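Budget justification note: compute hours in this period were largely spent on complex prediction jobs such as the one shown. Inputs:
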Amino acid sequence: MSAFVIPFWADLLAVGIGSLQGAMFAAQFRDRRLDLLGVAIIGIATGFGGGIIRDLLLNEVPKALQSNWYLPVATGAALIGMLLERLFSRLSKVITVLDALTIGLFGAIGTTAALSAGLPEVPAVFVGVLAAVGGSILRDLLLGMPIALMHVGSLYAVAALVGATTLVVLVNLGVAIPIAAIAGVVLTFTVRVLAVLFRWSLPEQRRL
Amino acid sequence: MSAFVIPFWADLLAVGIGSLQGAMFAAQFRDRRLDLLGVAIIGIATGFGGGIIRDLLLNEVPKALQSNWYLPVATGAALIGMLLERLFSRLSKVITVLDALTIGLFGAIGTTAALSAGLPEVPAVFVGVLAAVGGSILRDLLLGMPIALMHVGSLYAVAALVGATTLVVLVNLGVAIPIAAIAGVVLTFTVRVLAVLFRWSLPEQRRL
Amino acid sequence: MSAFVIPFWADLLAVGIGSLQGAMFAAQFRDRRLDLLGVAIIGIATGFGGGIIRDLLLNEVPKALQSNWYLPVATGAALIGMLLERLFSRLSKVITVLDALTIGLFGAIGTTAALSAGLPEVPAVFVGVLAAVGGSILRDLLLGMPIALMHVGSLYAVAALVGATTLVVLVNLGVAIPIAAIAGVVLTFTVRVLAVLFRWSLPEQRRL
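Corresponding output:
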């Protein structure tokens, strides 16, 4: 099964948005005395993390290391995110929308890459979700912060899970991969944006 | 050299016990506001972590991603661990016993997998120990806690080390792999259970 | 393109110095109650980390797991580092010099390994820098400390970046790999030592 191939510029754009966001996130913690390199590392980790986790699990050389373009884009986006943090923080709605698109794209790319590597359906969804949210997990680990998506908040990984599951179900029903992938991206995007708008969240952990 | 093959249900059971424990551990920290997904992530990481580290180091696609069964079992066990934490915490002796069996099994599987991948003896023991305790390391990293097994406590990794070393020595002496593996599991189990019973521990770090 | 092959004893020495340093670093935090195993783990992670990250990214079985020598050397160096911390801390200049040599060597090995695996220039530099500093990142993650090299300090990763970039540029200009590698090691070494001597650092993150 051939993987869902998105245009190279779209993949680069997704990495760039991830890096921009990672750097903006890091820029909020000015008391931590990150230097320029630290900001670049956080940016690269946020933009690359999901894709590298995906490719490690699929036992492939990470795609981001097979072209000269990814690292400059990620580094540049991280430094822009740091410099223009004040500007972008006023554009937070734009960023949320772009980020929802990014997790949708990363999720669809990861899920179809896993399917075409021959993984069964359930682990393919798992790899897709990790591809979507891995960058954010790595960002929080490197910053020594609690991992945001494990805590009560706005359906970030759940949006990726809904999209990846839909993609796999549609493919199993015989839908062509590009169409299933687009459906997955749209669903992830919609769930995430609605969750932010209406403050949907999962219940906190509880015991009987 | 063929790897020590344990029955599929025993491997699933080991993953399930790991996930149950990870979720029960996480459930103690109610002030952290983990949501349901966070508990599932901790459970999956604890149950899968060792096996994924093992397979990454051996340059193979993780076994846990080659079947549809592992993820539902890990997720289900994590949610049960969370819901029934109060019940299970009264059964802590049962859990300790099951967990000692689990690190024994994971250690034997990891060590023989490394041997059959052609690794020399010493790194085979290393991979076996990481396979046994990797889930617990990943759990602590994701929760932002000090990594339990690096601190003064009850011979957790040491038990795995004793079992894996015994296995490799026996195989080198010509003992058949299944028998060497069973000896390794039994030794790891015994050391761990006795260490908990008699509060054995390694000395704290010191300097001359 | 054949990788820059350094003598086996030099590679072992670099791993040993890394482990020694990691353990000495950990020994400063006596209130954390690390046990002997914890110190060994930190030592092994610091000495091995960069090489393992390099080989995972290049989709190869880690070199450190292909010989029986690396683990005993790393463990031994870690325990010596712990026991003799007081002695070594008076030799801190010697250690800084040896460590500058180590990041130079790891950087050159990583960069040429990436080039010979067929990676383009920019990701080859990235892999080289990660190979040089990955151990230090892993050490800080496992200790639950802020990651030193992301914060304002003395050009640690930058030294590796300068050396790796020089190596790749020289190779592209047609210089033989051994000579380019030596140039890379010398430059990394020089930048790092001068940065410590004259307290050079990158500027802190800022915004417009």
